[in-house]
Amino acid sequence: MIQVNHLYKTFDDRTVLSDINATFEDGKTNLIIGQSGSGKTVLMKNLVGLFTPTSGEILYDGRDFVKMTKHEKVAMRREMGMIFQSAALFDSLSVLENVMFPLDMFSSMTLRERKARAQECLDRVNLSDAGAKYPGEISGGMQKRVAIARAIVMNPKYLFCDEPNSGLDPKTSLVIDELLSGITHEFGITTIINTHDMNSVLGIGENIIFICKGHKGWEGNSADVMTSTNEDLNDLVFASELFKKVKSAVT
């Protein structure tokens, strides 16, 4: 579990995050949503240590990430998996080698063990036969699945996903959502997803943090979204006519 307590982040004299309090729960898909410029990306960068909060706490199972030494933070990051918006695969490495990369860097496994573990993760994301291919030879959706396999290869306790459905068609986005949700529940991971995809919000949003103008504007789950009276949240989630009709049908 990750707890954020009274988190502030300022750049020069501009406050981007103000008094953020939130809990990201184990074994659930925790979503961070908000308009562009709301501060949600800054929040995630604070969570993974790319930014240092101006003040406040970030507790990983009770351990304050903000107060950790550099050595402790390096060790902490080995408990984290990260899926980037662009997949961020190495073009010169095969799919199997991409998934093996964290093991090559941080594990003491033998080569045979690393290959077996990487193949196991490819099997989990339904890419059993793709190991010998290169990123340029597979689709964008397959690249995202490779990125998921690489993110879980070290058995992380915490999985961070930055816009995992960016650039994907709705059908492929659904596949990615189902994979992330399934992996989260199967392994009891604390999964945090930064997303603009409202299908994800309504489909897999078990715990949703809505950031509005640097503040936490709302917190709930996908069912709560449907009955929310928060105008800013409704403007974000139900911007399309289709989603407006869905909400009207429920309420």
Brief overview:
Helix content is 41%, strand content 24%. The protein has 251 residues and is α/β, with parallel strands linked by helices.
User: Can you summarize the main beta sheet?
Assistant: 6 strands, mixed
Shape: globular
Number of strand elements: 10
Radius of gyration (CA) equals 19 Å
Mean model confidence by pLDDT: 92
Helix and strand run: EEEHEEHEHHHEHEHEEHHH
Helix-strand category: alpha/beta
Give a description of the structure.
The protein is of the alpha/beta class and 251 residues long. The chain is 41% helix and 24% strand. The strands form 2 sheets. A 6-stranded mixed beta sheet has the order 6-7-8-3-9-10, sandwiched between helices. Helix 5 runs parallel beside helix 6. The protein is globular and about 50 Å long. The two termini are 33 Å apart. The mean pLDDT is 92.
